[in-house]
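Contributing new records

If you add data, match the layout below exactly. Sequence lines come first and carry their own label; structure lines follow with theirs. Keep one chain per record. Anything else will be rejected by the validation script.
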Amino acid sequence: MLAVKGVTKRYKKTTVLNNTGFTLAPGEMLGIAGHNGSGKSTLLSIVAQVIPADRGEILENDVPVLSNRAFMRQAIGYIPQRNGLLSDLTVTETLRFWQRVYGISEPIFAKGSASCLLGLEELAKKKVGALSGGMQKRLSAALAMMHQPRYLLMDEVLPSLDRHYRLVFLDWMVDFRKQGGAVLYCSHEVEELNSLCDSILVLRDGETVYYGDARTFPTEPAILDRMMNPVSVNKQSNK
């Protein structure tokens, strides 16, 4: 069980996240929704320990894991919205580098591996900078999956994949969750979150405005607009 408690993040005078928290159980998929700038990506980056929180804690089975490098390497797989890959490396070089980081010795394109499932062998000699955005996202996904993490963090991933690899990835996630893996998925597509997730957390201007079962999540457009839109937009619509 992963527990995020009281996470707060400020940039100068702007509060990006305010006292945000959730739990993520084995096999669970939690969707994080909200408008652009609501704090979704910041929350994911803090859980992935890419950026620090100003306040709050992250625990696994009641054990603090903030700044725990072993936990980060072993437990977290992170697919950011921006790929952040080194453009001068080839696909093979990128995969080899991350295999060394994770201590993986199997062949890069072993049957059933993430790189094989996502069709990266056909791109093996290409430089990352020459890949399309969708191809780069497949590489980012393979890097996040290769060490079989306990928690997979995804930021707006599925829309970047073409239909074939989106279905491949979704099939992989089904098995991943059956084996106890948990998924944290950011998206502004409410319909997508409704169909995939067990629970949903909605952020608006850094505040949690909904956290509950996906089956009881409101779907009426007027309610969603009120819930998801920034406070400034809601005030203008009431004038």
